[in-house]
Amino acid sequence: MISARRLLLAASVACATAQAGTVVDYRRDGDCATDFDRMAIDGLRARIDMTIDGSAMSTIADDGEQLTTQLLHELRRYMTMESDDDAADFQSDVMRASHIHAARQAEALTGVDAPAAAAAFRAQQIAACPDLAELGLADPDYPEAVARCAESMAAAAEARRGDASGDRRRAIGAAIATGRARSAPAQPAAPAAPAPWRTTTVERGDQIEIDGRRCRIERLVRGDRVLREDCTSAIADLGLEPAALRRLDRIAAVGATVGRGVAELHPEAADESGPPRIALSRRCFRDGRQTGKATLEIRSGVAVPADRFEIPGDYRPMSPGEPGSGDDDPFADEPD
Q1: Which fold has domain 16-95+200-314?
Q2: Of 13, 144, 248, 321, which has the fewest Cβ atoms less than 10 A away?
Q3: Between these two residues, 128 and 274, which has the higher pLDDT value?
Q4: What is the rounded distance in angstroms from the CA atom of residue 4 to the CA atom of residue 110?
């Protein structure tokens, strides 16, 4: 006969291996990026996986321990912060103060305030890559366009170096011209135009139902071009189990509190859509053609492995502001 103790032990092992939770993810057809890739929620813990500008990362929220952890998968690093109300307020104050301090330090070093420096940088970008004039800093295509621009500028610089090294006279002429340019008195630069934060707008349409859930049509447009079309729903309208709903509400509240300090400094960067909403469906477009679509799927009673809510054993802590990965990473060869 199996003893009660052995039954309890077996149940404990089973709970540690996999737990029944809620999984929210997208079914994709074609090329269509979403705001997150997958959510797994179980009890007091939640994990959100996402890909931002090609980099995979995850957020683990543990409301039992009042901790939020960011996993940076390419770097194999993690950052953990306390997420109770006082800690979130403190993080907001720190981020605001750090932002102000950095702006003042840059102005003291360059003699140019932050808005003027941003406008000058924006003008340089557009001069090198005129297509960037159509994109605001918060537009969804901006990161990819900047990366292409940087590659183009690097290739052009390499070609110029090759041309100069292949002809001694041209090389000498280029050096003389450069010297003259550097010795010429600096001319006052015309003030650059303010850098637009976004050149897109959100058009809101009718409310419809998808799989019994209410959602609102929202189109992100640039000029007369539709970039994507979502049908978004408030978190409360997703039909989640109460525990899963509480986890997402808490994650949203902590994120809003932490970001509040910087948002107050830059109201132009405020999210146009208001409180957090989740796309039940998304259609993505490029150059007037649909490139793909994504449809939300919600599954309850799913066995979620417990280690999905843990920090991988080979990840190491990372301090805010740590340099990037690769050979330039000064922490890469540190002994454990």
Answers
A1: outer membrane lipoprotein receptor (LolB), chain A (2.50.20)
A2: 321
A3: 128
A4: 73
